[in-house]
Amino acid sequence: MMLINNELQGRPEWLSIFNTRRFFEMHSTGQNSIYLAMQDEENASLQAVVHLTESDKDEFVSPFRGTYGGYEFSRIDMRFVEQVIHETESAALERGAKKITLVQAPSSHDFSSSACCFNALHRAGYHISGQELNHSVAVTEAPLMERINRANQKRWRKCEREGFVFAEEQDVEGFRKVYEVIRENRASNGIQISMSFEGLMEMHANFPGKVHFFSCSEQGKIAAGAICIAIRSDILYVFYWGDVTGYEQYSPVVYLAENLYSYAMGAGFKVLDIGTSTLHGVPNYGLIKFKEALGFQASLKLSFSKALA
């Protein structure tokens, strides 16, 4: 194995946006940080990626910003995973790290990789420093309507009867309308949206064709919107979604969810991820109930920490 710390040529399908060099550089500017890519010595193919950024004195985290970071592998071989962890710790120690904290991808993204990383990290002396429930659904040929409960099936039919229209927005004006729906929805619940519109536009520019804005409209007025990121070639992630006050009788997010699933199916995605349903491990009971009534299932999203010195 050869460890490198330079620009990668392209992005392999197994590597998520959050672990690309471009995403790393967008958010770690000016910090003590390191981006590690492990290549095969014989054919120079990329085998593994991890990046670390100093957040507090002597503590290096992955990611510094973003939904997750941690380790991603092109192949799972336990001896190789162990070697990568060892090489990463050595590189971090050279940068002055005394502690490492990693947020791994939800287990539903790759159950085998998640299990092997858990085993290797645990044996290497890491402890679970955080755990969240993350909800997603496997995208198959079966429609989402077969998985949602009867009450949501009725809500979907009501939206269909009333002529609701699902669409992917194609210009900045449409993007902003979707963003404003979501921002206002969060504000009505006392929550500040975590990313500015300008920040999303930067993501849109840096990752062409990966950031999507969807709307659900009734008589030309947006009733609900979603901002999704194709975080991997096979995973569509609902970064934000929400509806407009006054449409409670329709529950347009239900109609939105079914259409997002159909979009994911048509685009060849294998997983539709709608994000975490806990905060610092504490369940949002209403949110969990809502997601599971739509047919989404929980998996674990774990954080690991280790004191190096």
Q: Could you describe the 3D structure shown?
A:
The protein is α+β, with helices and mostly antiparallel strands and 309 residues long. The chain has two domains: 138 residues, 3-Layer(aba) Sandwich (Aminopeptidase), CATH 3.40.630; 130 residues, 3-Layer(aba) Sandwich (Aminopeptidase). Helix content is 33%, strand content 32%. It contains eight helices and 15 strands. The strands form two sheets. Strands 1, 2, 3, 4, 5, 6, 7, 8, 9, 10, 11, 12 and 15 form a 13-stranded mixed sheet that branches. Strands 13-14 form a two-stranded antiparallel sheet. It is elongated. The mean pLDDT is 93.
| Topology as a string of helices (H) and strands (E) | EHEEEEHEHEHEHHEEEHEEEHE
Number of domains: 2
Question: What is the CATH superfamily classification of the largest domain?
Answer: Gcn5-related N-acetyltransferase (GNAT)
Helix segment count? 8
Give the proportion of residues in helices.
25-40%
- What is the CATH topology descriptor of the largest domain? Aminopeptidase
- Low-confidence segments, given as residue ranges, are none
CATH architecture of the largest domain: 3-Layer(aba) Sandwich
Percentage beta strand? 25-35%
**Terminal-residue CA separation:** 26 Å
Mean pLDDT: 93
Largest sheet: 13 strands, mixed
What gross morphology would you assign?
elongated
